[in-house]
C-alpha cells in the first residue's frame, strides 16, 4: 500500500522524504516523490535555504522552494520546512558582511519574517534552528553565534512564532543526537530552559544520518527520543539515511535494512515521535557520496529506482505493528 499508509496505520502522522530540485526533470523520480501513499510528507532538501531564498539582501526568491512545496501541497503531502537559522548554505553577503550585533539581528529577523510569512499555513513544521551544537555540547561557532551571541537561537524561535502564527510546529533540528550523549543532553537542557522561560519550541528533529556498522541501536534511539518525550516535546526523525562503505554487498544491505527498521520502530514506539523523513529516497541524489567519499547507497531505492531490502524491511515492520 505504500510506506505512508502503513506508517499511519502504525500510529505515526507520516512517513516522508526530502525532495531535491536537481532531479525535478526526472519524471520517474517526481512521480514517486509526490506519491502520497508512499510519502505523506515532503521536505525541500535545499529549496528553502538562505542562499536560494535571499541571495541578495532583502531580495527574496521562492522559485526553488515553490517547485517542491506546490506539488507537495497539491498531492496532499504534509510539508516540513527547512530551515531558517543555519551556519551552512548562507550567501556571501551574509558570510562576508561587516555586521554589528544590531545589524545582523535585523537581517535574521527580516529573513525569518519574509520566509515565514510567505509559507504561512503551508508548513506543518519549521526547522527554526539547525545544527547549532557541537558534539561536546557546546554551541557551534557560526556567524550567528559570533555576532549575536547565544541569544540568536531563542530570538529565531520567537520570530518564527510571531511570523508563522500558532499553527506551525517549531523545531530545533540536529544530527548526532540520536543517542543519549553530550550533544543530545545539551539540546534537552536548552529545550528545558526554553520551556521554563516561555520561548516557543514545539519539537526536536533528530536528523538520523547513520552509517552501517556504526549506527545507534533501537534502544539507543528510543532513549534519545525519550529525553524529549520527558519534556513533552514532539520529536521526529527528520533526515534518515544509512550510508554504506563501498563496495556494497548483500550483507551490507541487510545490515542497512536493520538500521532503517530499528530507527523507524523506535519512532513508532515512543509516544511523542510523530514521523520519519528519509533524506531522499533515491541513491543517485543522496548528499552522501559528495560529503563522504567512498560511502554511498544510503537510500531506500537503488540506481534503477528499485526497492532495496531496507524498503521491504520497513514495510514489513510497519505492517506488523
Ligand atoms: O546550487 C548549486 C548549483 O548552482 C550547481 O549547479 C550545483 C552543481 O553541483 O551545485 C549546487 O549546490 C549544491 C546544493 O546542494 C544544491 O544542490 C551544493 O554543491 C551541495 O553541496 C549542496 O548539498 C546539500 C547540503 O545539505 C549542503 O550542506 C545537500 O544537497 C543537502 O541534502 C544537504 O542537506 C543537509 C541538511 O540541510 C541539514 N542536515 C544535513 C544534510 C546533509 O548534509
From TrEMBL:
Keywords assigned by UniProt, alphabetized: Carbohydrate metabolism, Glycosidase, Hydrolase, Polysaccharide degradation, Secreted, Signal, Xylan degradation
InterPro entries per the UniProt record, alphabetical: GH, GH10, GH10_dom
One GO term of the biological process aspect: xylan catabolic process
Pfam families cross-referenced by the UniProt entry: Glyco_hydro_10
Highest taxon of the lineage: Eukaryota
Family annotation (SMART domains): Glyco_10
Gene Ontology terms: cellular component: extracellular region
Family: Belongs to the glycosyl hydrolase 10 (cellulase F) family.
Official protein name in the record: Beta-xylanase
Organism: Periconia digitata
Amino acid at each position: 500500500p505504500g510506506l505512508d499508509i502503513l506508517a499511519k496505520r502504525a500510529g505515526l502522522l507520516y512517513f516522508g522524504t526530502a525532495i531535491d530540485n536537481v532531479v525535478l526533470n526526472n519524471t520517474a523520480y517526481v512521480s514517486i516523490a509526490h506519491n502520497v501513499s508512499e510519502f505523506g510528507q515532503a521536505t525541500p532538501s535545499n529549496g528553502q535555504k538562505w542562499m536560494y531564498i535571499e541571495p541578495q539582501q532583502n531580495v527574496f526568491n521562492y522559485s526553488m522552494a515553490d517547485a517542491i512545496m506546490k506539488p507537495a501541497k497539491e498531492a496532499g503531502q504534509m510539508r516540513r520546512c527547512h530551515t531558517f537559522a543555519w551556519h551552512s548554505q548562507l550567501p556571501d553577503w551574509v558570510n562576508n558582511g561587516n555586521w554589528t550585533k544590531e545589524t545582523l539581528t535585523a537581517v535574521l529577523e527580516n529573513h525569518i519574517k519574509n520566509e515565514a510569512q510567505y509559507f504561512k499555513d503551508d508548513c506543518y513544521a519549521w526547522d527554526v534552528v539547525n545544527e547549532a551544537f557541537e558534539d561536546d555540547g557546546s554551541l557551534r561557532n557560526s556567524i550567528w553565534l559570533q555576532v549575536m551571541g547565544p541569544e540568536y537561537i531563542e530570538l529565531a524561535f520567537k520570530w518564527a512564532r510571531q511570523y508563522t502564527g500558532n499553527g506551525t510546529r517549531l523545531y530545533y533540528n540536529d544530527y548526532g543526537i540520536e543517542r543519549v550523549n553530550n550533544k543530545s543532553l545539551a539540546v534537552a537542557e536548552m529545550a528545558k530552559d526554553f520551556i521554563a522561560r516561555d520561548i516557543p519550541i514545539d519539537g526536536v528533529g533528530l536528523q538520523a544520518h547513520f552509517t552501517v556498522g556504526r549506527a545507534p541501536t533501537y534502544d539507543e534511539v528510543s532513549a534519545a527520543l525519550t529525553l524529549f518525550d520527558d519534556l513533552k516535546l514532539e520529536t521526529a526523525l527528520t533526515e534518515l539515511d544509512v550510508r554504506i562503505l563501498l563496495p556494497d554487498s548483500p550483507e551490507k544491505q541487510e545490515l542497512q535494512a536493520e538500521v532503517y527498521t530499528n530507527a523507524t520502530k523506535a519512532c513508532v514506539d515512543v509516544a511523542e515521535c510523530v514521523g520519519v523523513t528519509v533524506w531522499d529516497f533515491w541513491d543517485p541524489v543522496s548528499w552522501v557520496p559528495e560529503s563522504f567519499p567512498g560511502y554511498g547507497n544510503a537510500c531506500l531505492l537503488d540506481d534503477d529506482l528499485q526497492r532495496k531490502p531496507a524498503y521491504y524491511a520497513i514495510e514489513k515492520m510497519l505492517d506488523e505493528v
